[in-house]
Amino acid sequence: MQLAGKVVLVTGGTDGIGLRLARALRDAGAKVTMTGRTAARIAAAQAEGFEVLPADLAGPDGVAGLLAAISGRQFDVLVNNAGMGGTHDFREGAPVADEDERTLYLNLHAPIRLIAGMIPALRDRPEAMIVNVTSGLAIAPSTGAPVYCATKAALRSYTQALRSQLKDTHIHVLEALPPVVDTAMTAARTGSKLSPEECARQIVAAMQRNATEANVGIVRILAILNNLAPWLVRRIMLSF
Predict the structure, then answer these.
(1) pLDDT for position 239
(2) Which residues of the chain are modeled with pLDDT < 50?
(3) What's the confidence (pLDDT) of residue 70?
(4) Cα separation of 79 and 77, whole Å?
(5) At CB < 8 A and 24+ separation, what contacts does 65-73 make?
(6) When you count CB atoms within 10 A of the terminal residue's CB, does the N or C end of the chain come out lower?
(7) 106 touches 57 (CB < 8 A)
(8) Calpha distance 173→89 (Å, rounded)
(9) Residue 22: burial class (beta carbons within 10 Å; 0-12, 13-18, 19+)
């Protein structure tokens, strides 16, 4: 896709991967609108010149409000980037039900509902794209984050089916699978982390070449290994 002149909506765009995606897309010539839910981060993004639509997409009211806010507007690209991951580990204690519900809605329900709401407008564009940001953990789960992994695996499955449905249209469907990226969500984690700038760069490059998957960083190796020996990948990932 030629991104220059395209109008893009990035969810969760005021921090982390989303903010770097917004900057990279703008550098490529796109006009970017983003969503955010934290006042300070919204103000910071606005100071950079971005249009920000306040929206908490971890519940149905936030999704409905966003769809109402963009009704009648033209977008060429929807990037479903907003996501969260909470603790759900019975070795450490009882999970927090409300946190699980917010994770389920934000990571899975919200992208599906936004796609359903925006498909009619995307169909009207001469060239359009849907980008769903999942995770390398959509390929094989880790032991410590089963709810997060389940939502990303479900969104991966949905994305693959959606791509098949839209194969005869001009709406291209891309799945982006990042590794562990150095963001606020992973601040407590040790070990190697990819920079959010490099993650965004690889996703935007995949958009520009109309790829169907962007296996970012070390996920490229994970995907290859999974094709050869999925049992081995599951065993390795479940050790975390």
Answers:
(1) 83
(2) none
(3) 98
(4) 6
(5) 66/35, 66/114, 67/113, 67/114, 67/117, 67/118, 70/9, 70/33, 70/118, 73/121
(6) C
(7) yes
(8) 33
(9) buried
Residues catalogued as catalytic? 148
Work out the end-to-end distance of the chain between its first and last CA atoms, rounded to an integer number of angstroms.
37
User: How many residues are given for the chain?
Assistant: 240
Q: For residues 23 and 87, is the Cβ–Cβ distance under 8 A?
A: no
Q: How far apart are CA 206 and CA 137, in angstroms?
A: 19
* Residue reference for tokens 């999925």: 230
pLDDT of residue 189: 76
Domain 7-237 has CATH 1.10.3720.10: no
Residue 95 identity:
P
Measured distance CA(221)–CA(198) in Å, rounded: 17
3-state secondary structure the chain: CCCCCCEEEECCCCCHHHHHHHHHHHHCCCEEEEEECCHHHHHHHHHCCCEEEECCCCCHHHHHHHHHHCCCCCCCEEEECCCCCCCCCCCCCCCCHHHHHHHHHHHHHHHHHHHHHHHHHHHCCCCEEEEEECCHHHCCCCCCCHHHHHHHHHHHHHHHHHHHHCCCCCEEEEEEECCCECCHHHCCCCCCCECHHHHHHHHHHHHHCCCCEEECCCHHHHHHHHHHCHHHHHHHHCCC
| Domain spans of the chain, in order of start | 7-237
Task: Specify the amino acid at residue 122.
Answer: L
pLDDT of residue 86: 80
